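Narrative summary of target 7.
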Amino acid sequence: MKIIILLISISVVVAIVFLVAFLWAMKSGQYEDTYGPSVRMLFDDNVKKDENKTEK
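Modeled conformation, tokenized:
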């Protein structure tokens, strides 16, 4: 019976830690731009041709 109480208390502590981490991420603005990442993959990266020819 003691092990069940120990496991439940550890799981509650871990859940609280994840909740605090999630709330910190929300408060710091991690999820503000929901549109940008979805269209970022549609655009090509601007790579200069001179950068690819470094050594000959």
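DSSP finds three helices and no strands in the chain.
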